[in-house]
Design goal:
Belongs to the universal ribosomal protein uL29 family. By secondary structure, this protein is mainly α. It has 3 helices and no strands. It has a single domain, classed as Orthogonal Bundle (Helix Hairpins).
Length: 68
């Protein structure tokens, strides 16, 4: 689980890379669940929340940039 403080300190490029990594992990977890190989079922929800955190910070930054 990624802390919001850690996310806010990253640049937009780093956040984009993190978002891609999280989406890949989410895909792999969904694939594992479909094949019955998933052991850490709580990880799916944690990854979804991390994706939401990253997208929220990116949206906040784009709104502040639009205002400026």
């Amino acid at each position: 689980m990624t802390k919001i403080v850690d996310i806010r300190t990253k640049s937009e490029d780093e956040l984009g890379g993190l978002l891609i990594d999280l989406r890949k992990e989410q895909f792999n977890l969904r694939f594992q669940r479909a094949t019955g190989q998933l052991e850490a079922t709580g990880r799916i929800q944690a990854v979804r929340r991390d994706i939401a955190r990253v997208k929220t910070v990116l949206a906040e930054r784009s709104r502040t940039a639009a205002k400026a």
